[in-house]
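INTERNAL AUDIT FORM
Audit reference: QA-55
Scope: verify that the stored structure record matches its stored sequence.
Auditor: D.O.
Record contents follow.
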Amino acid sequence: MESALVLEARVIRRIRSLPLWRPLAVRDFRLLWLGQSVSLFGDQFYLIALPWLALTLTGSALALGSVLMVFGGTRAAFQLLGGALSDLVSRRSLMLVSSVVRAVVTGLIALVVLFGITKLWHLFILSFIFGIVDAVFFPAFMSVIPSLVTTDHLRAGNALLRGTGRLMSLLGPAVAGLVVSTAGIAAAFAIDAATFVFVAVMIGLLRNTDGFSESSEPEAQPLHDPDPVSVDHQAARHHLKTLFASIVEGLRYAWAEPVVRALFLIICAIEFSYAGPAGVGLASLARNRFDGPGALGMMLSSIGGGMVIGMLLGGSIDGRRRRGPVIIVATVLMGLALSLLGFATSLVMACGLLLFSGIGAGLTNILIMAWIQAKTRSGMLGRVISVLMLGMSLTEPLSFALSGMVVSLNLKMVFVASGTFLLLASLIAITNPTLRSAD
């Protein structure tokens, strides 16, 4: 009995000593992580309530698709603008205003639904506003992380934030669905609004978003210099270019920086290879080869659970050496797993391959994002993040469209072709000395 207790204590100490938990020693990071975690949980209520409300109002899948298209199109259209703003304006202020706007708009929708006066145009306005706010919030959010934690803790910080978000997307929908079915759509929107209020309070409590100040390792230095706008507004305004010129500068910088350009191409290749097969191919696989919706749910849960594991694994790895080779090897293995998925003869085999792929995707996601944050010049990170998001926003619908065409011809081919594309992207990455040898 005593030896078991000793072993348990050792395991607990070992877990606590993992690099993954070190960013939580920073007060401002804890606040940001807590606020974002609650907000992402609330988003699941929105993601269930919005389509259900659209279908209840119209009974039309076309109307629902149009509402979602407005959100995606607006976000893509304002993506570069949001990135430029996050480099020109206080990121804390952008996140705070974004959260307040989302809380107000979602709260108004809850009231409209509660009083039974909802119209379809209300949902179009909601999607339009959320598209703009999302385009502004996310670059600011990802850009502020390096100012809260040291370079060595960037991967752990990203892993905690992104991994928790992925976990919320696995747990939240079931709770949200229960709320919608029992308490109604208005209650779901009200809960989402409350979570936006909570994250706004957490962001409002942040004290130091311009440079690292608090850590379990006080000798560590900040990754970036203080935000020039927050330090000296007059001097910054004197030296900053116009907003359009700032966007162009960000595009040129992202393409001219070898590491950023290489990582950008890899993450877009991964997005292109997975978006369509996951969104179109898996549904067809579940319907034609396995036992329908239940199989689809298990496969999606497998890839989602794998991503959580991969993200936490990426945050638990200490040190910064050999990132390039690790990313390349993980991408190769993901391509092989995706290709083999087309030949899966059982649901267990398919889920195993998807779990493996998800681990690789989560790991590369954290390594790539932390590397971009570390390599990007101070004052350019928001624009670089927005370029990355825009590339992914454009790549995703293309992957959906092509996958739909290929699935209609040959289901197996959509996975083989996507996996082969990812393998080719890996081979190209191997020839890149920046990735192959960079630490």
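Auditor finding: record pair retrieved intact. The two ends are 46 Å apart (CA to CA).
Action required: none
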